Amino acid sequence: MIWYPWLNQPYRQLVSQHQAGRGHHALLLQSLPGMGDASLVWGLSRWLMCQRRDGFKSCGACHACQLMLAHTHPDWYQLTPEKGKQSLGIDAIRSVTEKLYHHAQQGGAKVVWLPDASQLTEAAANALLKTLEEPPKNTWFLLSSHQPADLLATLRSRCQNFHLAPPPEEPSLSWLQKQVAAPQEACITALRLSGGAPGAALALLEEKCWTAREALCHALPEALQSDVLRLLPVLNHDDAARRIGWLCALLLDALKWQQGGGAFITNADRQPLVAGMASQLPGSALDLSLREWIICRDRLLHVSAVNRELLLTDRLLGWEQMLHTPTVG
Questions:
Q1: How do 160-163 and 26-30 pair as beta strands?
Q2: In the chain, where does DSSP find H-type helix?
Q3: Do residues 234 and 216 lie in contact, with contact meaning Cβ atoms separated by under 8 Å?
């Protein structure tokens, strides 16, 4: 498991709570994708399991540590959906709960990790809730979520909510430039498009993904001047929602540019494109375009069995009509 420098402070904070006897039996770790929440959970789990802790460190040599390093510790449970399924059902929760109420096989702590708590079905969440209300002794639940608002309010209320915030841009940029050979403006843009999460920025800068964004940026000026349907081949992919997110960031940047906020744009590597959009489109058109594309993205993400190509085509045709309506300004 890769350890990231921005995890040092939150790790020490969480361990300190346990050292002071204030460690909550259920931790809900909230973070953006690419923040390394899995690494933080793994580090905390190792410390909780260790039988000969050395301050903030697990010893790495005791039997419990050896089992953790081999990923064979019988008292550490990772709950994920069965292969081919998207949700975590009640049977999985009941199965692990039965084991938790027995004596720990290694005589120490028992740890349950849910890498994505939003995958819990409502029945599974309610079953887990009952266990959290009366947790077995020396048992710790570690839940991760990128969308905590999707969880049951009662489940969130039984947990200690811990926000793994993105680090400041400067140290993130320094770390990112050590990982990838990319221009500084590209790294800054990747960080801002990723909400400041360095791991997500690194993934965005991978050739395939970055090339897709570049294609959108190249196609956009001509599409706005002549035929926005030219954007359909650029947007109509499995990651269409993400590509729409890039488009929305450009529209928002153009609004910032019009208001004199050029220093705060997300797409730092595309200032001429942003400036061109800001001069070509009135603020009302940019604002309405942004709102409509956000709705389109939301439908892609949440409407079951949506026809992606049809939805994108309809949005592009509507956008073209709106952009060429004289009263839009």
A1: parallel
A2: 8-19, 37-49, 63-69, 90-100, 122-133, 153-157, 169-179, 184-193, 198-204, 207-225, 232-235, 240-258, 271-280, 283-302, 308-323
A3: yes
Q: pTM for the complete prediction?
A: 0.90
Which residues sit opposite 110 in a β-bridge?
A: 139
The 3-state DSSP class for residue 143 equals strand
Q: What is the pLDDT of residues 60-87, one digit of tens each?
A: 999 999 999 999 999 999 999 988 888 9
As a whole number of angstroms, the distance between CA 148 and CA 164 comes to: 12
Helix (H, G, I), strand (E, B) or coil at 29: strand
3-state secondary structure 156-200: HHCCEEEECCCCCHHHHHHHHHHHCCCCHHHHHHHHHHCCCCHHH
Between CA 181 and CA 205 the distance in angstroms is: 10
Q: Hey, what's the torsion of the CAs at 71, 76, 79, 82, to 10 degrees?
A: 50
CB 99 within 8 A of CB 42: no
Give residue for tokens 């050590």: 178
Q: How far is CA 317 from the centre of its chain?
A: 31
Alpha helix ranges (H) inside 50-121: 63-69, 90-100
